[in-house]
C-alpha cells in the first residue's frame, strides 16, 4: 500500500548534547512516515560496537565518531561547510553494505539547519506546497540536460563539439577558408549564434564566419500532393446521356432510380434536371428518384417512409434489422459489428418523434438473425393493425479493409447505383462508385504505399547515433461533395466528411501499426464538404528540420570541395543520476550535489565538456535559469568514472551547474 510498515534504521547521535535536538526532528519525521516503529530509534555513537551491524544509520552531529570515520577515509566531506551551514549526505556502502545518511554542520547552527531540512522538507527542495519542485524534478532536469532535450543542454553540447572540432583543425597543417555553421536547437537564438561565431573566430583566426540557429521543429515538406478525382455526379450524367437517352423516344415510359452520396438538395436538383431532359426528349411518363448512398437506411426512413406515414394513424413502428453475420470460415483479424446495419439508422427514432409525435418507446428496433431484406418495417395504428409496410436493402459492395494487407478483413461498403427502364425493359443497371469510395481507392492504392515507403526508408536509416524520427505531420485536407447538415435533433449532424475524417485517422494509424511504423508521424485528417462536384485532396507530409539537436559545420579547404562536419546531439551515456548531498542554511539551500556514473573515460569526458560548456554559456549571459528553485543557490554535478575516482567537474569557482531545464545560476553568495 506504499505505506512503510516499520523503520529499518537507527539514529546515531554524536558527542555534542545539542545534536540531540536535531535527532529529535529526524526521529519525529520517521515516526510520522511509518505505520510502525522499532524502539529505541536512537543511540549514542559510543554505544555502537560494530558499525556494519547498524541498519542504514542516520548519523547526526559533526562530533560523531562514525561521521569522523567516514570523513577520514574520504567517503564524506564537511570541510567546505561555512558557519551556519549543514550537510545531508548519502554515503552508499558506508560500513559494509549499509547506506549511511550524514546530518552534520560546520557548527551547532549548521547541524540544526541540516536536521530541519531533512525532517521538514525532503523530498521537496525548499517549498513544501503540493506541486513545488522536488529532488526528483531536479534529477529529471539533469537527465534532460545530458540527453540534449533542453535548449541549454543542446547549446552546451554544441559548444563542446565546436571546441573539439577547432582542436582537430588546429592540429592539421591544412589551412581552412570560410566557415559556415548551422545549429539546430529546440528554439532559435541569435545571441547564441553570435557567441558561437566569436568562439570559432577566436579558435580559427578567420573572420568570414557565418553561424545561424534553426528550430528543430520547423516543418520541412517531404511531399505535397494535390489530387483531383472524378465525381460520381459526372458518372451519373455520362451514363444517363450515353446509356439511357439513346433508348428514349416520344411517348416512352421511363423509370430512373439512382443512388448517390450527395446532400438532399443536390439529389433533388439532379432529379429535376434528369426529368426535364427526359421530357424534352418526348417522354410522357417519367419517374425519377435519386436516393442517398450515404446512411442509406436512415435516408430510406426519412425520405421514403416518413412522408408515406404522415396521413396515416400511426401509433407504433416495428422495424426489423438483419444482423450482420461475418463469415467465420475466414480467419479475419477484424470483423464487422453485428449491429452494422442498426447503427446506420441513428437518430431516425428522434426524427419520427419530432415529425409524427411517435414516442421513442413506440419506435421498436429488433435485430433478427435471418430476414429476406436487411430492413423490414411495419407501421401499426391504434388498433394494432398494419397500415403500412416496406422493405429495403442498401446498395453495397465488398472490399478489402486494407489493400496492403489482403485477407485481414473485408467490409461492406455502401455504394452508388443507377437503374433505368424504358417501356418496362431494363436499360441500365450498374454500380456508380461514390465520391467517398473514389477517394478511398486513391488513399489505399497510392497514398498509403507512398507513405509506407517513405517512412520505411527513413526508419532503415536510423542508427544508434540517430535514433529519433524526424517526421511530424501527415495532413490530409479533403474537399468533397457529400451530405453535411444539422437535422435539428440535440445538435445531431449528418456529415459524411466528419465520418471520413474519423475513418482516415483510425485506419491510417492501424495501417502504420501493421507496417511497423507506429509513432513516426502524427495523422491530421480534415475533410470538408464543398459546393462543387469534384473531390480535391491535398496530402502533405512534413518532417522536422532535423531529427534532434544537430551541428553542421562547413569550411572551405584549399583547392578542394567544401568539408562538412555533422554532429548529432545524441544522449550522453550518463547513468544513475541522483541527489546525494544537500548543503543547507537556516534560510536557504546553498548547494545540491548530483552524482552520476559514466561507463568509460570517453563518456565522462563528454559529460565534462557539456557541463563546462554550460558554465561558459552562463558566464556569457546566455541560458540563465528559467525554472527557478526558490532559496537554492546552485547545483554541482559530479560524475564517477570507471576507475572509481570521483571527478569534480565543476570546481568551486562561484558558479555551479543547475540542471533545471538544462540551465545554470550564479552562486548568490
Task: Describe the 3D structure.
This protein is of the alpha/beta class and 669 residues long. The protein has 14 helices and 31 strands. The strands form eight sheets. It has a nine-stranded mixed beta sheet, sandwiched between helices. It has a four-stranded mixed beta sheet with strand order 7-6-24-25, with helices on one face. It has a four-stranded mixed beta sheet with strand order 8-23-19-22. Strand 4 and strand 5 form a beta hairpin. Helix 1 packs parallel to helix 3 and helix 9 packs parallel to helix 11 (348-356). The two termini are 44 Å apart. Residues 645-669 have low confidence and may be disordered.
List keywords for this structure.
about 30% helix, four-stranded mixed beta sheet, alpha/beta, about 675 residues, disordered C terminus
**Which band does the percent of strand residues land in?**
25-35%
Q: What is the count of DSSP helices, taking H or I runs of 4+ residues?
A: 14
Major sheet size, sense and barrel closure: 9 strands, mixed
Return residue spans where pLDDT drops below 50 for at least 5 consecutive residues: 645-669
Q: Radius of gyration over alpha carbons?
A: 38 Å
Distance between the termini: 44 Å
| Structural class by sheet pairing and helices | alpha/beta
Count all strands and give the number: 31
Fraction of residues in H or I helices: 25-40%
Instruction: Tell me the strand order in the biggest sheet.
Output: 2-1-3-5-4-26-27-28-29
Mean pLDDT: 88
State the shape: elongated
Amino acid at each position: 500500500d506504499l505505506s512503510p510498515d516499520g523503520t529499518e534504521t537507527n539514529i546515531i547521535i554524536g558527542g555534542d548534547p545539542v545534536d540531540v535536538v536535531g535527532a529529535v526532528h529526524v526521529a519525529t519525521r520517521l515516526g510520522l512516515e511509518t505505520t510502525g516503529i522499532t524502539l529505541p530509534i536512537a543511540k549514542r555513537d559510543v554505544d555502537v560496537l560494530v558499525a556494519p551491524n547498524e541498519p542504514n544509520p542516520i548519523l547526526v552531529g559533526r562530533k560523531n565518531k562514525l561521521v569522523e570515520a567516514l570523513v577520514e577515509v574520504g567517503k564524506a566531506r564537511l570541510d567546505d561547510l561555512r558557519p551556519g551551514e549543514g550537510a545531508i549526505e548519502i554515503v552508499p556502502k558506508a560500513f559494509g553494505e549499509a547506506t549511511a545518511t550524514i546530518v552534520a554542520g560546520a557548527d551547532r547552527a549548521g547541524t540544526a539547519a541540516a536536521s530541519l531540512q531533512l525532517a521538514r522538507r525532503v523530498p521537496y527542495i525548499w517549498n513544501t506546497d503540493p506541486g513545488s519542485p522536488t529532488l526528483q524534478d531536479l534529477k529529471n532536469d539533469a537527465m534532460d540536460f545530458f540527453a540534449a532535450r533542453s535548449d541549454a543542454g543542446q547549446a552546451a553540447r554544441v559548444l563542446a563539439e565546436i571546441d573539439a572540432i577547432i582542436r582537430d583543425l588546429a592540429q592539421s597543417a591544412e589551412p581552412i577558408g570560410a566557415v559556415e555553421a548551422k545549429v539546430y536547437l529546440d528554439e532559435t537564438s541569435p545571441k547564441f549564434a553570435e557567441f558561437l561565431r566569436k568562439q570559432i573566430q577566436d579558435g580559427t583566426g578567420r573572420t568570414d564566419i557565418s553561424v545561424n540557429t534553426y528550430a528543430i521543429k520547423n516543418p520541412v515538406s517531404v511531399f505535397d500532393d494535390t489530387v483531383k478525382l472524378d465525381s460520381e455526379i459526372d458518372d451519373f450524367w455520362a451514363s444517363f446521356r450515353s446509356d439511357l437517352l439513346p433508348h428514349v423516344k416520344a411517348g416512352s415510359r421511363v423509370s430512373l432510380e439512382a443512388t448517390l452520396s450527395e446532400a438532399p438538395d443536390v439529389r433533388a436538383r439532379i432529379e429535376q434536371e434528369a426529368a426535364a431532359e427526359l421530357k424534352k426528349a418526348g417522354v410522357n411518363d417519367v419517374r425519377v428518384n435519386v436516393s442517398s448512398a450515404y446512411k442509406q437506411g436512415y435516408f430510406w426512413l426519412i425520405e421514403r417512409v416518413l412522408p408515406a406515414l404522415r396521413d396515416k394513424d400511426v401509433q407504433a413502428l416495428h422495424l426489423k434489422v438483419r444482423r450482420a453475420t461475418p463469415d467465420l470460415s475466414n480467419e479475419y483479424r477484424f470483423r464487422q459489428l453485428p449491429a452494422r446495419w442498426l447503427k446506420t439508422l441513428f437518430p431516425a427514432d428522434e426524427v419520427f418523434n419530432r415529425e409524427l409525435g411517435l414516442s421513442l418507446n413506440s419506435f421498436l428496433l429488433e435485430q433478427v438473425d435471418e430476414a429476406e431484406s436487411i430492413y423490414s418495417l411495419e407501421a401499426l395504428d391504434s388498433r394494432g393493425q398494419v397500415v403500412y409496410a416496406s422493405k429495403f436493402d442498401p446498395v453495397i459492395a465488398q472490399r478489402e479493409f486494407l489493400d496492403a494487407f489482403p485477407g485481414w478483413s473485408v467490409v461492406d461498403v455502401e455504394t452508388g447505383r443507377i437503374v433505368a427502364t424504358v417501356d418496362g425493359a431494363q436499360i441500365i443497371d450498374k454500380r456508380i462508385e461514390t465520391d467517398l469510395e473514389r477517394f478511398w481507392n486513391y488513399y489505399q492504392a497510392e497514398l498509403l504505399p507512398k507513405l509506407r515507403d517513405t517512412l520505411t526508408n527513413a526508419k532503415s536509416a536510423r542508427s544508434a547515433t540517430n535514433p529519433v524520427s524526424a517526421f511530424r505531420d501527415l495532413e490530409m485536407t479533403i474537399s468533397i461533395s457529400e451530405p453535411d447538415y444539422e437535422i435539428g435533433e440535440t445538435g445531431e449532424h449528418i456529415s459524411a466528411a466528419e465520418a471520413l475524417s474519423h475513418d482516415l485517422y483510425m485506419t491510417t494509424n492501424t495501417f502504420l501499426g501493421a507496417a511497423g511504423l507506429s509513432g513516426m508521424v502524427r495523422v491530421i485528417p480534415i475533410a470538408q464538404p464543398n459546393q462543387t462536384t469534384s473531390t480535391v485532396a491535398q496530402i502533405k507530409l512534413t518532417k522536422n528540420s532535423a531529427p534532434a539537436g544537430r551541428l553542421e559545420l562547413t569550411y572551405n579547404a584549399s583547392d578542394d570541395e567544401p568539408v562538412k562536419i555533422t554532429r548529432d546531439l545524441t544522449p550522453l551515456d550518463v547513468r544513475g543520476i541522483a541527489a546525494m548531498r544537500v548543503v543547507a542554511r537556516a534560510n536557504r539551500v546553498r548547494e545540491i550535489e548530483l552524482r552520476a556514473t559514466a561507463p568509460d573515460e570517453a563518456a565522462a569526458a563528454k559529460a565534462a565538456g557539456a557541463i563546462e560548456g554550460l558554465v561558459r554559456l552562463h558566464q556569457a549571459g546566455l541560458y540563465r535559469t528559467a525554472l527557478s528553485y526558490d532559496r537554492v543557490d546552485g547545483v554541482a554535478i559530479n560524475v564517477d568514472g570507471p576507475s572509481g575516482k570521483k571527478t569534480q567537474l565543476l570546481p568551486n569557482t562561484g558558479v555551479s551547474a543547475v540542471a533545471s531545464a538544462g540551465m545554470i545560476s550564479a552562486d548568490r553568495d
